[in-house]
Each structure stands twice: as C-alpha cells, then as structure tokens.
Design brief:
Length: about 110
C-alpha cells in the first residue's frame, strides 16, 4: 500500500458515487488516472522514484497542481480506464450489459 486518497476531497460529485472504479498508470510512471462513477482525475506522481511506501506524502498528492479533474461524458456504471498508447489520452467504458455500451475516448490536455 503506497497511500490512500480521500476521494471526497477531490470530487464535486455526490458521496455515494465517489468510489474509485478503475485506475491506470502511464507507461512512463509519472502519472496515473482515477475513475469514479462520476468523474476522472489525472494525478502527477513519478512512481519511478518511489521505492518504499513511506516515501509518498499522500497529502502532497492532493495539491491542486498535481491533480487534474478531467471532463468526461458520464456513463452509467462507468468502469475500466486505460491510457492510450503514447499516454496522450485514455479510454473508459461502462460495466453495462447493454449491447451498445459505449467506449469513450478522451484526449489529455497539457
């Protein structure tokens, strides 16, 4: 365990929908994505420099300059997030069992 996030502090959504449903790490290890039922966040953290859990100061991760709220279309029961090749965007989807469940593509902003 490297640390814990208080997702309620990050989120503008309702508390009952603030569960992290998916997570992905960029290929270079400098960022990661968090997906909840309502929002997505990209967090800057160079995981390549971390060798022990005690080296991460989790409150520092919550600084505004490290966390970006990413605008995404809201999908019912959204789960599953992954960076695209090149880490310039990501895809996410839903656990809906409908045949036409969408797979959304989002480009990351610098």
């Amino acid at each position: 365990l490297l640390g814990k996030f208080d997702i309620d502090k990050l989120s503008e959504g309702k508390g009952e929908n603030n569960f992290v449903t998916s997570f992905d790490i960029s290929s270079d290890g400098t960022r990661f994505l968090l997906l909840t039922y309502e929002e997505a966040f990209e967090v800057e953290l160079d995981l390549g420099t971390v060798t022990k859990a005690k080296e991460i100061n989790v409150p520092d991760l919550l600084q505004e300059d490290r966390v970006k709220r990413v605008k995404i279309p809201n999908l019912k029961k959204q789960e599953g997030i992954a960076y695209l090749p090149g880490d310039d965007g990501f895809m996410f989807s839903t656990e809906s069992k409908k045949k036409d469940a969408p797979l959304e593509r989002v480009l990351c902003e610098d």
